Amino acid sequence: MEIILLERIAKLGQMGDIVNVKDGFARNYLLPQKKALRANPQNVKIFESKKAKLEIDSLEQKKEAEIISDKMKDLSVIIIRQASEGGQLYGSVTSRDIAKSISDAGYKINRRQIILNSTIKQVGIYKIKISLHPEIIKNIDVNVARSPEEARIQLSNSLDDKKIDSNNKKTDLKDDKQELSVSEDFFENKELAETAKENMKAEEITESAENQISSNEESN
After folding, report:
1. Who has greater pLDDT, 56 or 176?
2. How far is CA 211 from the centre of its chain?
3. Which pTM value belongs to this model?
4. Measured on CA atoms in the order 94, 97, 98, 103, is the torsion positive or negative?
5. What whole-number distance in Å separates Cα of residue 132 and Cα of residue 65?
6. Can you give the CATH number for the domain in which 16 is found?
7. Closest CA to 155 of 120, 126, 119
8. Cα separation, 6 vs 53, whole angstroms
9. From the CB of residue 95, how many other CB atoms can be counted at a distance below 10 Å?
10. What separation in angstroms does the CA of 135 have from each of 49, 93, 103, 132?
11. Is 151 part of a structural domain of the chain?
């Protein structure tokens, strides 16, 4: 189906673009969500008449999304689920569950804003993307656990892992600097040695020449 995009859609195009999409995607998502219009002469005229307002609305929505994104800094949510000893969930965590947890935390989010490739079926901490605006994507941590205590332990372990990773990066950087310093010292010393050798050779040549001159003078 050919449609006219009413906003920027990732991997599809920008506002005003006419693109081809699968019928189901258009009927079940883009059209009912008012993200697009069917591409026909009448709708092209409608879009052109509303284009300026749509662009203004998009800018305002983007500003609001930026404010929300700032407020959501370091946001993480905990979702408690029953699971086996191995951590396999009895069921799964869906985009609807995540949206509800975020809404409970004070942010109005619907499930369609959650970018989730597949449902969560294991306890753990997951980085989840939220589409606050077509141009603003926010990452949050979703901590799926069997109890608040397990969630706390998972968070603590995650922070420890980040510290270890950060320390490893610092150590690698320090080692690189040391290697560079050693390398520079090596080449500096090598250059000094070469210079010394050249000076010694020059002195030997000069001394030899002076001796030759002296010998010639004595012979005369």
Report:
1. 56
2. 74
3. 0.64
4. positive
5. 5
6. 3.40.5.10
7. 126
8. 11
9. 19
10. 24, 26, 21, 8
11. no
